[in-house]
Design goal:
Elements lengths: L5 E2 L5 H10 L4 H12 L14 H10 E2 L4 E7 L5 E6 L5 E9 L2 E5 L3 E3 L8 H5 L1 E4 L2 H19 L5 E4 L9 H12 L11 E5 L3 H9 L5 E5 L5 H7 L8 H15 L3 E7 L7 H11 L4 E7 L13 H13 L3 E4 L22
Parallel strand pairs: 1-2, 6-9, 9-10, 10-11, 11-12, 12-13, 13-14
Antiparallel strand pairs: 3-4, 4-5, 5-6, 7-8
């Protein structure tokens, strides 16, 4: 199809209905099309088998229908599956299906690459290509949901926007994807099972707070000391810890929601007593849950993961200051599917 045609999934149900009426098609056919697109997850107009052949031909001639497809799967020893999704323009992104304790979580991407260039993140090393459209984000969820049903006989339990890219720098498309995922006429997933993660873009946190989101929010902090955070997260030079903190205070005041602090521990960089005390002080301004994550190796990086005694000592200091703290176990490390590793496929050993 020509690149000038409108993608059918960029249209609302009302817009599709209006076009059907304009083309002298029966209005109920538009509802059937919308159901095929968002509830049944079809991949082409030919799959819309309850539509007349003439209607399907009109759709094919009138609209483009760009869908993502799983190009490759690699399975970890722990059951985690990393998928490469091939997009209509040849771009690729990665997503991960994580099974644990009778549940499955989908970790999905919001951008092709990432513009933030965090030093510890493989995605940042790729550079930035483009934002994903909301239907490309939706496709990742839909395909991983099908994979969950196929492999574990259960639908997705949770979705985390923690894959490739910075979600708040693709705000409109990310929010539109959540709307589709939670729409009763689509996947009907509860927003309480969705988490959006960000390194902290203050103006976008404030915008999100003003819209009173029903999903969860997580901040990738990794250091509560400004100089250290600037070293590993370059955008911290533009958005300081103090600015991020003020936005988080406003977020909590406006929404009443507790959020999560994600904190990757790097050996003898941000895992000492002074780092734990700075983190505790930063988190005293709002109710939070802290997830500690040991660094996952990225080829070419010099960072190391701390030994368990240092991790436990860090947690104990936070416990003593009445912080809610969990040590989160990384999954899929052997296939480079863990936190910070999404950039390219690797076969398991």
């Amino acid at each position: 199809m020509s690149g000038e045609t409108t993608d059918i999934r960029s249209l609302s149900a009302i817009e599709i209905g209006e076009l059907f009426v304009k083309n002298s098609e029966k209005p109920f056919r538009a509802k059937q099309v919308y159901e095929w697109l968002w509830k049944k997850g079809c991949r082409s107009f030919d799959e819309m088998t309850n539509l007349p052949r003439e209607t399907r031909k009109w759709l094919t001639d009138t609209f483009s229908f760009h869908t993502a497809a799983i190009d490759r799967e690699v399975i970890s020893r722990d059951g985690t599956v990393k998928c490469t999704f091939l997009l209509h323009d040849g771009s690729k992104v990665e997503g991960v299906l994580i099974p644990a304790h009778g549940r499955t979580t989908a970790c999905i991407s919001s951008q092709v690459g990432c513009p933030l260039n965090c030093l510890f993140c493989a995605t940042g090393h790729l550079g930035f290509t483009r934002n994903l459209h909301f239907f490309e984000i939706f496709d990742q969820v839909s395909l991983l949901n099908q994979l969950s049903l196929k492999q574990h006989n259960i639908p997705l339990s949770n979705i985390v926007y923690m894959g490739m890219g910075e979600p708040l720098l693709n705000y409109e498309e990310v929010m539109a994807s959540i709307q589709k995922i939670t729409d009763p006429e689509s996947m009907a997933m509860s927003p309480q099972r969705i988490t959006v993660s960000s390194v902290g873009i203050p103006e976008m946190i404030l915008r999100m707070a003003g819209e009173n989101p029903r999903f969860h929010f997580a901040l990738s902090l990794h250091s509560a000391i400004q100089e250290k955070r600037c070293k590993i997260i370059p955008v911290s030079r533009k958005y300081t810890l103090e600015q991020v903190k003020e936005a988080l205070i406003a977020y909590h005041k406006q929404t009443g929601k507790r959020f999560t602090i994600e904190y990757i521990l790097f050996n003898r960089f941000n895992d000492g007593p002074e780092d734990a005390l700075a983190l505790a002080k930063f988190c005293k301004s709002f109710p939070v849950k802290i997830n500690l994550i040991t660094y996952n190796r990225v080829p070419g990086d010099e960072w190391q993961s701390p030994e368990l005694p240092r991790v436990n000592a860090f947690k104990e200091l936070l416990d003593k200051r009445n912080m809610v703290v969990n040590i989160r176990k990384s999954r899929g490390q052997d296939i480079e599917a863990a936190c910070g590793q999404l950039a390219g496929m690797k076969n398991p050993e």
